[in-house]
TrEMBL record, chain A:
Transmembrane regions listed in the UniProt entry: 66-87, 93-113, 134-153, 159-181
GO molecular function, one term: 4 iron, 4 sulfur cluster binding
Coiled-coil region(s): none
One GO CC term on file: plasma membrane
Taxonomic superkingdom: Bacteria
Domain 4Fe-4S ferredoxin-type: 232-261
Protein name: Fe-S oxidoreductase
Gene3D superfamilies assigned: Alpha-helical ferredoxin
Protein keywords: 4Fe-4S, Iron, Iron-sulfur, Membrane, Metal-binding, Oxidoreductase, Transmembrane, Transmembrane helix
From TrEMBL, chain B:
Ranges in coiled-coil conformation: none
Protein keywords: Electron transport, Transport
Listed Pfam families: ETF
Lineage: Bacteria, Pseudomonadati, Pseudomonadota, Alphaproteobacteria, Geminicoccales
Transmembrane spans: none
Family annotation (InterPro entries): ETF_a/b_N, Rossmann-like_a/b/a_fold
Highest taxon above the source species: Bacteria
Protein name in the entry: Electron transfer flavoprotein beta subunit
Electron transfer flavoprotein alpha/beta-subunit N-terminal domain location: 24-186
This protein's record includes keyword Transport: yes
Organism: Arboricoccus pini
From TrEMBL, chain C:
Keyword Electron transport: yes
Domain Electron transfer flavoprotein alpha/beta-subunit N-terminal residues, every copy: 94-269
Family according to the record: Belongs to the ETF alpha-subunit/FixB family.
Listed PANTHER family: ELECTRON TRANSFER FLAVOPROTEIN ALPHA, ELECTRON TRANSFER FLAVOPROTEIN SUBUNIT ALPHA, MITOCHONDRIAL
Protein name from the UniProt record: Electron transfer flavoprotein alpha subunit apoprotein
Native species: Arboricoccus pini
Annotated Basic and acidic residues bias: 1-10
Length: 639, 276, 399
């Protein structure tokens, strides 16, 4: 009988696979040192897998099912083989259990095969991935026959058993070959990436960890030039990519056919881990407008230029949609910014108007180049108190770059009136407020960012306030999540959150909306970066407006195209990101698209043709308050 | 081809909105030109010189353009840089002296390159936006007003003044700024007596100048009162396209912009050359 | 043909009124500014505009100065019928070195002459060093020194500087004025300053009542007595109308000039499309109201204008991003901005604040751009653009 032979063959294969896998670790171990709590990570890993990865995977139940069956079946069967390899434990019923496990795995393998061959999603990569279903089918099918045969005796059983062993072994060999540099390496790399993840905080109790990591400006090389400049656990993440293409599906730059496919970007980084790398073997969608096969590089060679074009690098809007969708928990945006840091700080090579604007920012502390002295020019009539006059106020209103934009000033005006109406005591830094540094940081200019952050924190430390309220999610993100690393820790509240709280307390009196249908566009830096999707919706609902959702909303909302300095680098595509987003809004039939970010406002208002009106949530609220006041005054009048 | 000794004079600029020190855009462009030129001729050296305070942080921004070393002739602000610069440059005997076209601080007369060129026996070419050197023969492209370009030939040693141009300046690289060295040399501080005689007032925007009219002004006023004015603020409602086009062309003619006048300008300039 | 900036009819009328009965009161006035700002007699002007033969008084303002289509004007001999002001031996001379960069007197030259005239006052005389141009007599020149053959080429900076130097040595002017153009007058002034050891005061932008000159230095204005050599900031002074002068030819002294070290190879052909927006002088700009971009391109080409667009147009990819005018695009300073189908969003208008002449074609009478324009045409740009292209080509073909 083969009862003794089969487990040994399987274990031998498995062992060789493990040796090969260990050999594979040198791909990512060549990365730069990183401080990782390894033991804690390993302990936390199963929890991260079952909770956090599951949350992502479960967004597509079918995928979750086949993965559970195939992967679970494979792992369970391997465990059973280990037991069966020990002669005293080789109970006959165990073969039954193995058969059951393999039968379930076979179902999963068939599902995988169907997905690959029958109704194949376009975002999937081919190549090694297309050989995967066959290997799984052979393994599961072959050993299922063997396991079933082991339950019986007789020549027929022996025949089937041997047949099963041959077929199953072929399958297993296939699986192992695919685990070495092939698609199944994700099993090992994925697990280790979860354990040694560069952002362990994102797995802690529903917290979001989205702030960029400060760069030590005294280090010898600023940012990432070559693959080996990335920390090893980042390389591990790139190498864990399964090329499922979810990032590709949600990337706004890819949708606009700008030369960025986040999946290809991560693959470029992973492929460059081998010397003499090229993207010949890559079998998925490339960066739009760029032919496959021309990229080349290696672990010690510069990435930008030969392996990844600079247009790819500067197309990213840092919207984090890819990160949010990635089942392997890869941090695309961090990689993007690391590469940008080298381009900006070392080479000073930025496209479009980015260099011009950064120079203005360095010299004036404002992106507009007008200097902070002009920040309150639009609000002379509003007489907003200055912090340096009042020294303390419950609310510090952070104005942001919006104060220099004619359109965004309307929002600020509405917000200031609402705060007045609600009796909120507030003040602003006015001419003392410098740019928060968001754009500089996303463009890789960490030096300017740290300079601005340091000076803003020094200014803020002179005054007493309970919280900072801002209408700019980018400022919100930077002040709340990125300043703490430089010694600033504040309670920062977005104006929609703050206003929603005020509405709950009923301070605005009667509200009278105009009854138009409204859809809400989530700003990336409010939703995905800071998890706030409820307050603006609650606010719109409190207005009594009919609210409809776009195809993509909440944490899965689509970017307006204005983040990450993308308007400055202005990489051309076939379409424009705001047009795509506006089409989604128009589809809902809404008359108004409610926004909560000055950048989104400008981007969406730039869309031409017939489209919903673009209004900030604060503007909608102020309109309702004004109308409500008038209506109340009228009804209060004697007939 | 032998290497060139290229001297670039760098001054401190002033940001128009905030008044903060910055790279002088013209000088920054001159430096970029020098570095690009040196890269095309092996053995070339770029010798950057600033006269002023070596501790000024903005000087690092020039280093950030890829300059390894910047020599600063240390002198207090308000001193006349000419004597020290002249002495320094004569010792270097450069083939090419590049400077920005205009300073943004102080007297800003743009005279310094001319005085240095005179002292060093150099031919001076102003307003250079493009330069092509073959041996010691240089072909320069000059920027004339309204986007016109003129080509000039001259031999080394040469001094050229360079306008910033409209393309954005290269952003200084933080890393290069950190790497570069500033070498400070003690220099003669000779105060400029001329500057004392100047009365300084805070600057304010002057109103747009109005021409003094001798004749016809009364008529113009009357016409504007009676609505018969035809120059400023003329409005045509639903004219036929031909009339509209004729009106536009007439106006362009008055402004002196239709192509016919452009061509005559061009030919006149070349005519002038052939006559010479 | 380039057209002189001054309308000869205006000048003739000016002189007629001056000679007409009201006797040379002005000549006796001590203060020239008072002279220039003296009010004319409106009754006389009204009389001139009166259409003869009408029963009720009708006025045709086209009959007189500064109006009417120039094409309808017969060529007028610029030499006046009445006598020019003669200056024999003034207390001092002011030398105005003109660029005439368009070949004729342009706005910059007239501004320069105005400043020279104001510095000369009643006692001084103005010498213009220029290409011969009959209009100079009406622009305030008492004497006219003509560039020698070696210095006719505007690029012959060395010869021009030597000429100025020779003239300075023979005439000994109290002030020498050059334009601020760094490749024309400004270059000559600096060459002269370096050669002759003169102090140059550049970019003069104001003249105070007490005769001092002012200029901007950072956030200060520096005031000082008018120096021997200065360059005049363009646009800071207006081109005043001047009384007729002699522009009497002045013999040039011998010029000590060695061989030129600069050789002019000539002008490069400039494609208006290749010019950066902030450098070009004439922009044709398309907005939302333009749908026919072929016609737009054709019209711009026929006019020799640089194409540009509003944000909407550039966003839609109809023009490249570097062609976008406005606060978020390029802020332009062209002399003329032809706005086709542009409503005039505030951000867009911010981008053209520095433009001198705006011509607007738009279907909406109430568009902001119409308010900003000095020639507004309420029409569909699609209809106007082909007509414009056709007519422009026609006019070009005609001699």
């Amino acid at each position: 009988m083969l009862a003794g032979l089969a487990p040994l063959i399987v274990l031998a294969c498995l062992l060789s696979g493990l040796v090969a896998a260990a050999w594979q670790t040198r791909r990512w171990l060549q990365g730069a040192p990183a401080r990782v709590a390894r033991l804690q990570g390993l302990i936390a890993m199963p929890g991260r897998y079952l909770v956090d990865v599951h949350q992502v995977v479960a967004r597509r139940p079918r995928n979750a099912r086949f993965h559970a069956l195939a992967a679970g079946g494979l792992l369970a069967s391997l465990a059973l083989w280990c037991v069966l390899a020990v002669p005293p434990l080789r109970y006959r019923p165990l073969w039954g259990v193995l058969a059951l496990v393999l039968a379930l795995m076979l179902m999963g393998a068939i599902s995988v095969w169907r997905r690959r061959q029958v109704d194949r999603p376009v975002e999937l990569s081919g190549g090694g991935f297309d050989r995967l279903p066959l290997a799984l089918l052979l393994y599961a099918g072959g050993f299922l026959v063997l396991a079933l045969a082991e339950l019986f005796t007789g020549p027929a059983a022996t025949l089937f058993s041997s047949l099963g062993l041959i077929v199953g072994t072929f399958g297993l060999a296939g699986i192992i070959s695919l685990a070495i540099g092939g698609p199944l390496k994700h099993a090992i790399n994925g697990m280790l990436h979860l354990a040694f993840h560069p952002r362990p905080a994102r797995f802690v109790g529903g917290k979001r960890d989205t702030g960029l990591v400060p760069l030590d400006l005294a280090s010898a090389r600023l940012g990432v030039e070559r693959p080996v400049d990335f920390a090893w656990n980042r390389l591990l993440g790139f190498d864990a990519c399964v090329q499922c293409g979810r990032c590709e599906q949600v990337c706004p730059a890819y949708a606009a056919e700008q030369p960025l496919n986040p999946k290809k970007f991560i693959q470029d980084l992973a492929m460059a881990l081998a010397p003499g790398a090229s993207d010949d073997a890559y079998a998925g969608h490339g960066h739009p407008g760029q032919a496959l096969g021309s990229a080349h590089g290696g672990p010690g060679e510069p990435l930008i230029g030969a392996m990844i074009s600079d247009a790819t690098l500067w197309s990213c809007t840092t919207c984090r949609a890819c990160v949010h969708e990635c089942p392997m928990m890869i941090e695309h945006v961090d990689a993007m910014v690391d590469l940008r840091r080298f381009q900006t700080l070392e080479l000073a090579a930025l496209p479009g108007k980015a260099a011009l604007v950064l120079e203005d920012l360095r010299l004036t502390d404002t992106l507009s180049g007008r200097g902070p002295g002009a920040r309150l020019d639009w609000a002379v009539d509003l007489r907003i108190p200055l912090m340096r006059e009042v020294m303390e106020a419950p609310v510090l209103l952070w104005l942001g770059e919006a104060a220099f934009d004619l359109r965004a000033q309307r929002t600020l005006r509405a917000l200031v009136r609402l705060l007045r109406q609600a009796g909120v005591v507030f003040a602003t830094l006015g001419p003392e407020e410098l740019d928060c540094g968001d754009t500089a940081r996303r463009l890789g200019d960490e030096a300017t960012f740290q300079d601005l952050a340091g000076r803003n924190i020094a200014t803020l430390s002179r005054y007493r306030f309970d919280r900072i309220v801002t209408a700019d999610p980018h400022s919100l993100h930077v002040l709340k999540n990125e300043y703490p690393a430089f010694g600033g820790g504040y309670e920062v509240v977005h104006h929609t959150t703050f206003l929603a709280g005020l509405i709950e307390r009923g301070v605005f009196g009667p509200l009278s909306p105009d009854g138009r249908k409204v859809t809400y566009h989530d700003p990336c830096y409010l939703g995905r970066y800071n998890g706030e999707t409820a307050a603006p919706r609650a606010l719109l609902d409190a207005l009594g407006l009919e609210r409809v959702e776009m195809e993509r909303s909440g944490l899965r909302s689509q970017c307006c195209g204005g983040g990450g300095g993308a308007t400055l680098t202005d990489i051309p595509g076939k379409r424009r990101i705001p047009d795509i987003r506006m089409a989604q809004a128009t589809e809902t039939g809404a008359a108004v698209i409610a926004v909560a970010c000055p950048t989104c406002t400008v981007m969406l208002e730039g869309v031409t043709g017939k489209r919903p009106e673009v209004l900030d949530v604060a503007e909608l609220l102020w309109q309702a308050v004004e109308r409500g006041g008038i209506a109340a005054a009228r009804s209060g009048m004697p007939a | 081809m032998t290497g060139l000794a290229i001297v670039v004079l760098l001054s401190l600029g002033r940001h128009p909105a905030t008044g903060r020190p910055r790279r002088n855009p013209d000088d920054a462009r001159a430096l970029a030109t020098a570095l690009a030129l040196a890269a095309t001729r092996s053995g070339s050296r770029v010798l950057a010189v600033h006269a002023g305070d070596p501790r000024a942080p903005v000087l690092r921004d020039y280093l950030g353009q890829g300059l390894d070393e910047l020599t600063v002739l240390d002198m207090p602000s308000g001193s006349d840089p000419l004597p020290s610069l002249r002495e320094h440059l004569v010792a270097l005997s450069p083939d090419l002296l590049l400077t920005g076209q205009r300073a943004e601080n102080g007297e800003a007369s743009g005279l310094l390159p001319y005085l240095l060129a005179e002292a060093l026996g150099m031919t001076l070419v102003p307003g250079v936006v493009g330069l092509d050197l073959q041996g010691d023969q240089g072909r320069f492209t000059q920027a004339l007003p309204r986007g016109r370009r003129r080509q000039i030939e001259a031999r080394l040693p040469l001094a050229a003044t360079i306008p910033a141009g409209t393309a954005g300046l290269p952003l200084p690289s933080f890393a290069a700024a950190r790497r570069g060295r500033i070498v400070s040399l003690p220099a003669l501080a000779s105060p400029d007596p001329h500057l004392v005689a100047i009365e300084r007032q805070p600057w304010r925007q002057l109103p747009r100048p109005q021409p003094r009219r001798l004749k016809g002004s009364a008529i113009d006023r009357l016409k504007s009162m009676t609505g018969g004015g035809e120059a400023k603020g003329r409005l045509l409602v639903d004219p036929d396209p031909e009339t509209a086009a004729a009106q536009i062309l007439d106006r362009l003619g008055e402004i002196g912009l239709i192509r016919a006048s452009h061509q005559s300008v061009t030919s006149r300039d070349t005519d002038g050359r052939t006559e010479r | 043909m380039s057209r002189p900036r001054l309308d000869p009819r205006a000048l003739r009328l000016a002189r007629q009124v001056e000679g007409g009965g009201k006797r040379p009161r002005f000549a006796l006035k001590a203060d020239p500014p008072a002279l220039h700002s003296r009010r004319r007699d409106p009754r006389l002007l009204r009389m001139r505009a009166l259409v003869p033969g009408a029963r009720r008084p009708r006025y045709d303002w086209k009959r007189d100065a500064a109006s009417g289509a120039p094409s309808a004007v017969p060529a007028v001999d610029p030499v006046p019928a009445n006598e020019p002001i003669r200056v024999e031996s003034p207390a001092f001379w002011v030398l105005a070195v003109l660029d005439q960069s368009t070949g004729a007197l342009d706005e910059t030259d007239l501004q320069l002459l105005s400043v020279a005239r104001r510095l000369a006052g009643d006692e001084g005389g103005v010498v213009a060093l220029a290409l011969a141009d009959p209009v100079l007599a009406t622009a305030g020149a008492d004497r006219l020194a003509v560039w020698p053959a070696s210095a006719v080429d505007p690029a012959a900076a060395e010869a021009r500087a030597a000429t100025v130097q020779a003239l300075v040595e023979s005439v000994k002017p109290r002030h020498v004025l050059c334009s601020d153009d760094p490749v024309a007058g400004g270059d000559i002034a600096r060459r002269l300053a370096a050669k002759a050891g003169l102090r140059l005061v550049s970019a003069v932008n104001s003249l105070t009542a007490d005769g001092r000159i002012g200029r901007r230095a950072g956030d200060e204005t520096w005031l000082q007595p008018a120096p021997a050599l200065m360059t005049i900031m363009p646009g800071s002074f207006a081109a005043d109308e001047q009384a007729l002068r002699e522009a009497r030819p002045l013999e040039l002294p011998p010029i000590a000039f060695e061989a030129a070290r600069l050789a002019n190879i000539g002008l490069l052909p400039v494609d208006p499309e290749s010019l950066p927006l902030d450098e070009t002088d004439f922009i044709a700009s398309a907005g939302n109201g333009v749908t026919d971009f072929a016609a737009f391109a054709e019209a711009a080409a026929a006019l020799g204008a640089t194409r540009a667009g509003s944000r909407v147009v550039c966003d839609a990819g109809l023009l490249p991003r570097d062609r976008q005018v406005g606060a978020s695009g390029t802020v332009v300073t062209a002399r003329c901005y032809l706005a086709l189908g542009i409503a005039g969003a505030p951000q867009h208008l911010q981008g053209i604040t520095g433009v001198r002449h705006v011509i607007a074609v738009n279907t909406d009478l109430h568009a902001e751009m119409i308010k900003r324009a000095d020639l507004s045409i309420i029409a569909d740009a699609q209809a106007v653009m082909p007509a414009l292209a056709r007519l422009a080509r026609q006019r070009q073909e005609k001699p």
